[in-house]
Design goal:
By secondary structure, this protein is an alpha+beta fold. The protein has one domain: Arc Repressor Mutant, subunit A (Orthogonal Bundle), CATH 1.10.10. The protein has 4 helices and 3 strands. It has a 3-stranded antiparallel β-sheet with strand order 1-3-2. A hairpin with a 5-residue loop joins strand 2 and strand 3. The relative contact order is 0.22.
């Protein structure tokens, strides 16, 4: 199973890919992602920060100045490489 081959830091990438959160129009706020992924907000912030620093996730600012996250092209390639 693909999920078994991923590190904990990479699992949000897989879920974002599977849910189609792959561009700025489909970006999700951290609360939405935490709910979808069934993970605590603080832990998710850490994971997203790590992946954003690596270039796998990008963010945008939405209403109320909140950040919303989506999978970058580099993140898409990383996830897809797990399938081969």
């Amino acid at each position: 199973m693909v999920e078994d081959r991923l590190e904990r830091e990479d699992k949000p990438l897989l879920y974002m890919h599977n849910l189609g959160i792959v561009n700025v129009k489909r970006a999700k706020k951290i609360e939405e992602l935490a709910s979808i992924l069934s993970i605590g907000i603080e832990e998710l912030k850490r994971l997203l920060g790590h992946n954003e620093a690596q270039g796998y996730i990008e963010s945008t600012v939405v209403e109320n100045g909140e950040k919303a996250y989506y999978l970058s092209p580099k993140g898409i390639v990383k996830v897809c490489s797990c399938f081969s």
